[in-house]
UniProtKB/TrEMBL annotation:
PROSITE patterns: ARGE_DAPE_CPG2_2 (PS00759). Its cofactor is Co(2+); Zn(2+). Pathway: Amino-acid biosynthesis; L-lysine biosynthesis via DAP pathway; LL-2,6-diaminopimelate from (S)-tetrahydrodipicolinate (succinylase route): step 3/3. Its EC number is 3.5.1.18. This is Probable succinyl-diaminopimelate desuccinylase. It holds the Pfam family Peptidase_M20. Keywords: Cobalt, Hydrolase, Metal-binding, Zinc. The keyword Cytoplasm does not apply.
């Protein structure tokens, strides 16, 4: 199959488009998103979108695709990333980039996280535009690179101040098409201890860096965070890596560990760093590795009403608003859009992300397309 040029049929069949996207091996690392993003940019240009491309590194583009509406109305915005994680060393039942459909599931790396969601909102727009002459409200799609290694594309767009405004932001990550209106942030910190080397038979002559970090990790694990969010629970901290020493018969003079904090939207990360320094003492050398904020949309925000009404009509029951312990490109885009009302909602089960034999139910891709098209008709048509 020629992957360089989109066919007209792809723009009206979300499952076929999702298959086409999965067949791009847009692995990150190393960062092979460009062919897949270029393919979608060409498809969206054919639908009438204006295309802006911004690279955070050579060959690592993100795209902002815009359809203009009335000047006084903020656009409806959808976002999705096109990079996928490596396939791992375990054999897959179906080749990871063949996009096989079997037993009602689309199989492949990226089928769940998150090319099916991107295919669904692109298809929804194509269907809308096929039946609508002009838009009352604008429509914007943000297609990012580098999400899996730290939301690099999204943060780059926010830093460039090219996002503009938004009435509502939809992040099409997999949630089984249930609305997630809050997710945690992440503060990842490296902590280094230094000591003094000596022969291990005379430990009193040295100063063990490993002993220091063992003590610090114990203090961290004994602490219980007090704040609580109704959808997200409490802040958590996990020691994720540890290293130290060079040889078995010397007192180690350097040791290091890393901590991954999953934080609440109201947590102040600078305050957490100051607390860590006080907890460990002045010998601890702290290095911020990544710093991503969480978000929380007021469940009563008026921009959510059309989505919740639509979901109620489709399922027959009022949806339950949820929170998520992970972070998404919303960490960059929500503040980039001036803390716009945001919902993470898309096809696929979040537990499928990054797994061998990753898959997404075909029925959820079709349902997501209907949900997104309904939103577009409400806000834009």
């Amino acid at each position: 199959m020629d992957l360089s040029m989109p066919d007209n049929i792809l723009s009206h069949d979300a499952v076929v488009l999702a298959q086409r996207l999965v067949r791009f091996p847009s692995l990150n690392p190393p960062g092979n998103e460009e062919p897949c993003i270029d393919f979608l940019a060409h498809l969206l240009a054919g639908l009438g979108f204006s295309i802006e491309t911004h690279e955070f590194a050579p060959g690592r583009p993100s795209v902002i695709a815009r359809l203009l509406g009335s000047p006084g109305l903020k656009p409806l915005v959808f976002t999705g990333h096109l990079d996928v994680v490596p396939v791992g060393a375990t054999d897959w039942t179906f080749p990871p980039f063949d996009a096989v459909i079997a037993d009602g599931l689309l199989h492949g790396r990226g089928a769940c996280d998150m090319k099916s969601g991107v295919a669904a909102f692109v298809t929804a727009a194509a269907r809308l535009l096929a039946s609508t002459v002009s838009l009352r409200r604008g429509l914007v799609f943000i297609l990012t690179a580098g999400e899996e290694t730290g939301c690099q594309g999204a943060f780059d767009l926010a830093r460039r101040n090219v996002l503009g405004e938004a009435e509502l932001l939809i992040v099409a990550e997999p949630t089984s098409n249930q609305p997630v209106v809050a997710h945690k942030g992440s503060l990842r910190v490296g902590v280094t201890a230094r000591g003094r080397t000596a022969h291990s038979s005379m430990p009193q002559e040295g100063d063990s860096a490993i002993s220091k970090i063992v003590s610090w990790i114990s203090r961290l694990e004994a602490y219980r965070f007090k704040g609580k969010h109704p959808l997200l629970g409490t802040t958590t901290a996990v020691t994720t890596t540890i290293s130290g020493g060079q040889n078995i018969n010397s007192v180690p003079d350097i040791a290091r560990f890393t901590v991954d904090f999953r934080t609440l939207p109201d947590d102040d990360h600078e305050s957490i760093l100051a607390w860590m320094q006080e907890l460990f003492g002045p010998e601890a050398q702290l290095e911020v590795i990544t710093d991503f904020s969480g978000f929380a949309t007021d469940p009563n925000h008026p921009a959510l009403i059309p989505l919740l009404t639509l979901l109620s009509k489709i399922s027959g029951v009022r949806p339950t608003l949820m929170g998520a312990p992970y972070f998404t490109d919303a960490s960059a885009l929500v503040p980039g859009f001036g803390h716009v009302a945001t919902v993470v909602i898309g096809p696929g089960h979040s537990a499928q992300c990054h797994k061998t034999d990753e898959h997404c139910p075909v029925s959820e891709i079709e349902d997501a397309t209907r949900i997104y098209e309904g939103l577009m008709r409400h806000f834009c048509a």
